[in-house]
Amino acid sequence: MQALLSPESSFYLSSIHTSSRNPSPCRSLTSLRFSKINGGGCRLIRRKPRPTATRAVLDAATIEELGLKESDIRNPAISSTYRSSKLPKPNQTVLEAQARVCTGPTQTRPLSEEQAFKVLDTILRSVRGELKDEEQVSKAQLGAFFAGMTIRANSFPEETQWSEGERRAMNIFWPLLLRALPPDVIFIADPEGSIMGLGSSVGPQFIGNGTSEMRLVGALREILAGGHLGYEEIQGVLKDVLPLKLEDGISTGVSESLLSALLIGQRMNRETDHELKAYCLAFDDELGPAPVADVSSLTHYGEPYDGNTRYFRSTLFVSAVRSCYGESSLLHGVEWMPPKGGVTEEQMLNFMGANTNLSLHQAKELIEDEEVGFAYISQREARPSLYSLIGMREHIKKRPPLATTEKVQQFIRAKGRESIVAGFYHEGYEEPLLMLMKRRGVHSGLVVKGEEGALSMTTRLRSASTLKGLPVNYCSGFRSVGMESACKDDGVSHQSFRLEVNATDYGFEPTDTPRTDRSVSKNIELGLAALHGQKGPVYDRIVLNAGIVDHLLGCDGAEDVTVALDRAREAIDSGKALKKLLNYIKVSHKLK
Q1: pLDDT over 80 at 202, yes or no
Q2: pLDDT at residue number 61
Q3: Residue 531: phi, psi to the nearest 5?
Q4: For the chain, which has fewer Cβ within 10 Å, the N-terminal or C-terminal residue?
Q5: What is the dihedral of CA 105, 111, 112, 114, to 10 degrees?
């Protein structure tokens, strides 16, 4: 990666030394700094180890070879190590069961009798205090698991309701669990006292503690029966219970079991448009009115917050390219997010030395800066209430409604035209995403089924085995137009489109997608090499994703897709895109 840095860049790497005498990682790290010198070129400055530099950059193979656990060493080159050590870990036995039973009406896979016995025994031993530390089943897990079982019993089709094995296991364990579980979990497991067959009065009589929980319990009665909530009801509940207040990993406010049951329950029931709108807009005013950037065009990129675990993630580098010809971008996300815990833009920017703690007003300045022209904002800074749920989201296992709606945000507005681009994976969510974009009032919107459900379209040939669902490179969207050939939605005229992007139609050679396999440093290395003009699969993907998005969004100068692709190439080949990225790293630290 060293050769990829321009003379004007300042970039830090840590190296770790091993030897036959000492196979363990040496705690004496060497930091390398690339610095501009007179007359061009760059020199390496070998820096003395800083006292706080107690972590090393290791790849996954080295970690395995040395017999280390990821929890033993913070490796900033691997995405999974960005998980906060302060977050309590979920019980794996129950988490695996949640992956099977806390999903949709057709995707759910009932547990076998053996699996059900193991899970219920684990839960019973945990609530009795017989399991310690990471073996304990969290309150959020209890809420999610029993919510999944209740919704399946009440409203799922016969093939995904309880198996005979699950019923036999529950018949044996429920009398014991009834004496050990707290009232809120008993309510979730049997809200009307009719599922378990023992006629318990706990569920029917449960109302919660305090006004916030009482409203949440009322909402849950509808959800656990397979029903839906109204827009105002959801917004009221969310604003009542968030941000989640924790002390030593334990909620000091609303019951975590009840909240996790709400989040997973609404996803299992498949959210209505009104419910998605409520989640999407609930905290728009959390920090006051959105700043307005003085730019002619702004694209909001909604990548999945949980990152990429397999393939190259291109959007950060695409944004640098698009900024070269006046198409400003706002990226947003988090450092680490379950369930995938993959490579994110925040990890890459952190690794390259950028400031990722920017306020909304500081991000606005970067967007307006002609030497930069794009920005990244962390959910931590933009929506603290939603950010407080990261730990709970790991414990509910499956993605909640927020995983969809957080991709359609406008943390900063623009004086000029605005667009939103969001990635999706599961068929059926493309239309709700576009609905939310129209609700936002943007001029154009685009959903992309890129690789891993992210935004990166590929130059790889479509697999012959892809028989079900929408293919990778499927795009659907709308553009605001005149009255002719347009449809009306929310009072705005839109021209809709849908297509599958075939890269070979635009002159790209078919290539396999470069794998990064959770490696933050590999993703950066590939992206920087491409911005240096190194031709190949990554270069082609950055060009493709910049040019096609410009064209589909109806950006100025991109009416002809060939011209749009050529200007993206010129932005890279001229060195402008690389300079924009390096400027971002530098300027992000100078903002006040």
Answers
A1: yes
A2: 52
A3: -65, -20
A4: C
A5: -170
Q: Are 400 and 276 in contact (CB under 8 A)?
A: no
Q: Rounded to the nearest 5 degrees, what angle is found at the Cα of 35, between the Cα atoms of 29 and 40?
A: 145
**Residue in this structure with the two tokens 């369930």, named with its chain if needed:** 339
* CA atoms lying within 13 Å on the CB side of residue 86: 8
Rounded CA-CA distance 146/370 in Å is 53
- How is residue 198 annotated by DSSP? S
State the residue for tokens 């977050």. 87
Residues constituting the chain:
592
Contact assessment for residue 82 and residue 347, using Cβ atoms and an 8 Å cutoff? yes
- Condensed to tens digits (0 to 9), the pLDDT of residues 507-520 reads 999 999 999 999 99
* Span 352-381, pLDDT tens digits: 999 999 999 999 999 999 999 999 999 999
Rounded distance, CA 30 to CA 12, Å? 10
Q: What is the DSSP letter of 158?
A: G
In this structure, are residues 458 and 450 in contact, taking their beta carbons and an 8 Å threshold?
Answer: yes
Confidence of residue 133 (pLDDT cuts 50, 70, 90): confident
CB 446 within 8 A of CB 553: yes
SS3 494: strand
Q: Give CA–CA dist 142/102, Å, rounded.
A: 12
Give the DSSP per-residue string, 275-317. Answer: HHHHHHHTTTTTTSSPPEE--SEEEEEE--TT-BSSB---HHH
Catalogue the E-assigned strands of 435-490.
Answer: 444-449, 474-480, 487-489
Q: What is the CA radius of gyration of the chain?
A: 25
**Band of pLDDT at residue 114, cut at 50, 70 and 90:** very high
In the three-class reduction of DSSP (H, G, I as helix; E, B as strand; rest coil), residue 138 is classed as coil
Residue located via tokens 């006040």: 592
Rounded distance between C-alpha atoms, residue 319 and residue 478, angstroms? 21
- CA distance to 12, 45, 355, per residue, from 35 (Å): 10, 7, 19
Angle, nearest 10°, between helix axes 92-101 and 139-155?
30
Determine whether 64 is exposed, middle or buried from the number of CB atoms within 10 Å of its CB (0-12, 13-18, 19+). exposed
Q: How far apart are CA 322 and CA 528, in angstroms?
A: 15
Q: How many helices (H) and strands (E) does the chain have?
A: 23, 15
Please give the full DSSP string across 536-570, using - where no structure is assigned.
SHHHHHHHHHHHHHHHHHT-TT-SSHHHHHHHHHH
The burial class, CB within 10 Å (0-12 / 13-18 / 19+), for 288 is: exposed
Q: Map residue 442 onto helix, strand or coil.
A: coil
Identify which of 455, 462, 507 has the alpha carbon closest to the alpha carbon of residue 314: 455
Share of the chain above pLDDT 70, in %: 84
329, burial (CB in 10 Å: exposed 0-12, middle 13-18, buried 19+): buried
Q: Check pLDDT > 70 for residue 329.
A: yes
H, E, C per residue of 317-337: HHHHHHHCCCCEEEEEECCCC
Residue 310 CB neighbours (<10 A): 15
